[in-house]
Amino acid sequence: NYLLGVGRADCTGPVAEIPLMGYANPGQVGGGLLMRLYSRAFIVADLDDSKRVVFVSADIGMVSQRLRLEVLEKLKSKYGDLYRQDNVILSGTHTHSGPGGYFQYTLFWITSKGLIRPSLNAIVNGIVKSIDIAHQNMKKGKLFINRGTVENSQMNRSPFSYLENPASERSRYSSNTDKEMVMLKMVDENGQDLGLISWFAVHPVSMNNTNHLVNSDNVGYASYLFEQDKNKGMLPGEGSFVAAFASSNLGDVSPNTKGPFCVNTGESCNNPQSTCPVGGATMCMAMGPGNDMFDSTRIIGQNIYLKAKELYKKASQEVTGPLISAHQWVNMSDVSVELNATHTVKTCKPALGHSFAAGTIDGVGAFNFTQGSVEGDPFWDEIRDQLLGEPSNETKACHKPKPILFSTGEMTRPHPWHPDVVDVQIAAIGSLAIIAVPGEFTTMSGRRLREAVKKEFDSHGTPRMDVIIAGLCNVYTHYITTYEEYQVQRYEAASTIYGPHTLSAYIQLYRGLARAIAKNTVQDLPRGPEPPVFAIGNITLVPPLIADRAPVNKTFGDVLQEVRQQYQVGDVAEVTFVGANPRNSAENATEHNFLMVERYASTSDSWDVVQNDASWDTRFYWTKGLLGRSNVTVEWHIPHGTEPGVYRIRYLGHYKKKLSNTHTFSVPFEGTSSAFEITTQ
Questions:
Q1: Were 369 and a residue from 4, 357, 541, 606 both cysteine, which residue would form a disulfide, CB within 3.0 to 4.6 Å?
Q2: Which part of the chain is the Neutral/alkaline non-lysosomal ceramidase C-terminal domain (predicted)?
Q3: Which domains does the chain have, with CATH numbers?
Q4: What is the pTM of this model?
């Protein structure tokens, strides 16, 4: 038995004008909302409350070092030494449709237009609030673990790299992706459901890089379905049951199961360079199972949800035993790795290869870069040398065969471009060991890491450990491929920033943590070098907020394009209002709800809310016009099972008003559509 607490809090942040984090496409900025982003927190304490472990899964691209340091700072001021570097794991789901701008290392500024304080604050506050809620609701309960296979939901997007791994190793596995879902179920002492964490390796990139609506993608939709199912009668984002679908070793795993096709000609581009005969690599895109990206998100999310539901129902293997956590900071640009008794190798200063700029079949890069590039391109190299300086010979040699595009470890203006100091962390909850990794391990890298950690536990008297990888934790260091995959330099390998021996270094480090946990010598682990915190205010190319303006003879919230009078299930009800910048609302309230669908109740002569902006069936679009004008369009995709009756759509916003040249303030307003009827047929 343990003390258990679960909590969920909004961490959406600004849904307009902020670049979305994931595809590294500066043109992909937020322009509305499909689903809200949440932080989901789980606290496990032993019954005498002497030890605690916190696991957080947040609907964000990844956890950045700056984000982690600020969250831990806030926890320390609230709770003293209760929640610390070693016992708090922060993991990102890796959605590619959440606001960016929460990084202190310069490389990430390029695509997310700097450090954007409102974006960072929303995530910090959301994570802390979710932990607060879990902390306040601790109760006696039990943990159960279960595992099962998820079909038809992934494919390996770099199969040619995977094939470089030794045949003897590949023959031990039936697939080139990990299809296993591991689930941790939480109930209180009366058997009441509290929540669950599921770990499954898949990229949340069912929504592609043409999307401008903030959302949590396929795994977020799985959370949404599970929470809606358990919190009956509640609106999305409400209710006490918390379901997290967390990331794992998803480095080379795509949900776009139809595979890569040339957008222009329709032929397959499943080749080592992911390139098309006409238009090259930029035309090669992977397709999901649905007829558009929304449909694909729904299908993959539902697959994951249905498997989780089945595993949850049948979970019977109880997790018991002590709580132990271990954490170290490591300078990853200078680790000596003993491969065997006679052979020692080293990691490198961080650098990105040419294929990094090619992107992947889930989101192609700019320019004419192709994957699998082991030669540099003189044209781009020259531009880089002029702008950023040429990589040193030492870095070039260390990273071979990677042709270096950005020698980020040697770039320090205005601040370092990439981290040197990285977190390694393992938390053991009885027989369950969670390896918190700082990035994206590929399928085979993850298998090697899990196996090495399991062996370490076995050989020090802690057999039968369930070892899982939690991805995108604590600090972002891109990808981690195997040494063999590294040799062919596709996107994942070009983004393995500490060189060919990155994986071996991590395996050595995590084995050290596992050994300390098994032998109960965690207190003797060196803390390692503390990561830097750069003094950065709000440095950003995001346009400043200006006063909003309504058209002549109109006011904010007026309807510009009305709904129809009648709809059927399956139709889309749509209304356009005179709008204002949604960023005003994010700065006023962390949990501002932009829209409501309401149903008329004749018995009480009142309107009841049936959907909000976190609902999968509603879409909130913001369109920027000139000189402070903008429109808002709300769509409601009327789902099956909607009761016939009279409905309306409401829009809630804030407009910025100028008091003087230096002072503005925000004024709340709302708009309402005409009433419309939904008929059965």
A1: 357
A2: 511-678
A3: 2-167+178-322 (no CATH), 558-679 (2.60.40.2300)
A4: 0.97
